[in-house]
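Typical record is below.
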Amino acid sequence: MDFGRLASAVMADTPLPGPESEQLAALVGSGSLRLVYGLLHRRRGNPPTADEVRFFLQAGASADSSVERALRGLRDYFDIAAVDLGGVVRYRLRGWAGTRPAGDRVPISARLRAQALAPARCAQCGRTPSRHGVVLDVDLRVPQDWGGTSDPENLQALCEECQDGKRQHLETYAAHAEQIRHAATFDEPQRRIGELLKAFAGQWVPTDLIGIVASAKEYQEDYQRRIRDLRYLGWEYEQSKRYHEGARVKVYYRLVRAVPWPDNIRAAIVAEEQRRKKTKPPPSLASSHSAQQTLWPAD
């Protein structure tokens, strides 16, 4: 699996950062590059000339008013084309650069990095720098290759050992990387989980992988509930608990039957929940009497 190519595809599908965004600050800082990017971003429909860019830099009291240097720096990350419009050369921001270094990480600003490391504890093993001498780094819950972003909900602190272990574990799914990334693109967590199960074509899928993909758009504290939601949509799956794969019991899921997705997944789930509540048979008189005896035993 060419993870560099996959990462480039991820960036191509990612919207451009806003001029005031944390993502842009992490990429280019707060100097002349950010000023020029802001101008190019706001004027994508009417690209500026070199003179306009230079005037904007000078008006912004930038220490460096070199247009060529600013454009060269921005082109490490963005596709900026020199276009001839009516005999005048203008600079148009078209998207992400298609030749970004394959090893680039999702940019994380200093503020977000400090926020993620604030607990001062590894999110996986619980060890701390002060007590155990571990070194913490910011980790993406959902990896960049699978569509992970620098949103605060996707950041966590991991020690070097846990981070390395997680990386090795996720590499075991490299053969399914494109299917995993495809599943992670959908808006609804239920659909992300369902598409992941479909991608594995009847194979057993571990819950840790399901949890990562379920949280691709926003962190899912109770992703197991999102799995159960699939039954309300008519999906069928099997569950398997394995007791001899480490200290913890590991749970796997395998798809048995999939059905087409409704137009509104959440509404369909709510409607089915309400239907089942209405059709659920009331408890028998005998069971009610027994329950009362249990709650209020006779003297």
User: Anything to note?
Assistant: The radius of gyration is 26 Å. The CA atoms of residues 190 and 226 lie 5 Å apart. The first strand starts at residue 78 and ends at 85.
